[in-house]
């Protein structure tokens, strides 16, 4: 696993240590958001919201402390999902592709991503919409 792609050491260490306990959905959501956080084209408000969600995940003592097994990560997943719904229009295909790659590194190449991939379908604009936006 290439740790150089993840400069936030606290995030990377927690993700690697608790990936299986946190579960596929939380790991995948956090990776999509983290990739958006690293995107230099994302607006500052989007980065602020994502940064809040990532920080909430990293801090061990939150609404439900993480040491409470599966239950401890439920609030983290709720926070990540809420933030994702707010910033969904800014998620790009590249964010998802990188999240899939790292999720497979953490859970194994044969992990079934079908339960989570539908969460992050990025709608590509229709060709006519692209042409219209260029002409405007």
TrEMBL record:
It comes from the Bacteria. The chain crosses the membrane at residues 44-61. Residues 46-82 form the DUF1232 domain. InterPro entries: DUF1232. Pfam families: DUF1232 (PF06803). It is a multi-pass membrane protein. Its main location: membrane. Keywords: Membrane, Transmembrane, Transmembrane helix. It is found in: Endomembrane system. This is DUF1232 domain-containing protein. It comes from Algivirga pacifica.
